[in-house]
């Protein structure tokens, strides 16, 4: 396998599928792979033909975290610098705040840094045999891909502290019950269901969808009054684009009523 083969990028109409392809390492991420993941998602966000990404792994695993074998021998490409939303993180894209949705399709293990990558996605479609967990707890490897930030926000502080401090495994059923997983699907079907969901999202008016995603993420940075103003300013931009008027006309003609999304 060449180095470039460690990340696979496929296109299915408006859906881009990004796969970690290191099955011999349970898709653990070394420095070079982190860089290629970062570049792949930056390219997706800049691609005018792509609306939604599906993020997954090959060989029955999502990602086992950082490649500690590479770390043990001195991974010169591993990045550990401070940085903001546009900078590369140790696992690659986990600091990026993309304008478009990312759906993680999780089978097998999504642990340690791999769990942090799954938390970076906007939604998670999870196979019934999947396992999450801060497994790096046992090896003294810190959470530095926003795991200590995103996990409490996603499932609440108390539950997050349980997982962060104990490093215990979390099966798919519990992950769904506490809010890590958005969809629970039969084993082996996470990718298929995630791609179908991505196509559903791609059918919506995209300026509005992307602004609402942006506002939902941005509000964490702001005081409440500033968040209210930011939401309104973004919404006014969508309205000014004409997308809202077009949707209102579709509604007036009878399209999309009574819960129909067609």
Automatic annotation (TrEMBL):
Native organism taxonomy? Bacteria, Pseudomonadati, Pseudomonadota, Alphaproteobacteria, Hyphomicrobiales
Question: What name does UniProt use for this protein?
Answer: Enoyl-CoA hydratase
Which regions span the lipid bilayer?
A: none
What family does this belong to?
Belongs to the enoyl-CoA hydratase/isomerase family.
In terms of InterPro entries, this protein maps to: ClpP/crotonase-like_dom_sf, Enoyl-CoA_hyd/isom_CS, Enoyl-CoA_hydra/iso
What stretch or stretches form a coiled coil here?
none
Q: Return the PANTHER family for the record.
A: ENOYL-COA HYDRATASE (PTHR43802), IP11341P-RELATED (PTHR43802:SF1)
Listed Pfam families: ECH_1
């Amino acid at each position: 396998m060449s180095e470039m083969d460690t990340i696979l990028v496929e296109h299915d109409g408006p859906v881009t599928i990004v796969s970690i392809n290191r099955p011999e390492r349970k898709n653990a991420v070394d420095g070079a792979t982190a860089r290629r993941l970062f570049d792949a998602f930056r390219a997706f966000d800049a691609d005018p033909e792509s609306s939604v990404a599906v993020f997954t792994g090959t060989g029955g695993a999502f990602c086992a975290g950082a490649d500690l074998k590479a770390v043990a021998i001195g991974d010169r490409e591993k990045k550990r610098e401070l940085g903001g939303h546009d900078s590369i993180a140790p696992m690659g894209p986990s600091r990026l705040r993309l304008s478009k949705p990312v759906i993680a399709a999780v089978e097998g293990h999504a642990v340690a840094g791999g769990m942090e990558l799954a938390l970076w996605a906007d939604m998670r479609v999870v196979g019934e045999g999947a396992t999450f967990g801060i497994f790096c707890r046992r090896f003294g490897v810190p959470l530095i891909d926003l795991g200590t930030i995103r996990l409490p926000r996603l499932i609440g502080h108390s539950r997050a502290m349980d997982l962060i401090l104990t490093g215990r495994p979390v099966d798919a059923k519990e992950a769904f019950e506490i809010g890590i997983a958005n969809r629970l699907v039969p084993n082996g079907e996470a990718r298929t269901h995630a791609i179908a969901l991505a196509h559903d999202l791609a059918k919506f008016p995209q300026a509005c969808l992307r602004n609402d995603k942006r506002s939902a993420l941005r509000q964490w940075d702001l005081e409440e009054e500033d968040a209210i103003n930011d939401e309104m300013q973004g919404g006014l931009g969508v309205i000014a684009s004409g997308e809202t008027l077009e949707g209102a006309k579709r509604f007036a003609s009878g399209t999309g009523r009574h819960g129909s999304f067609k």
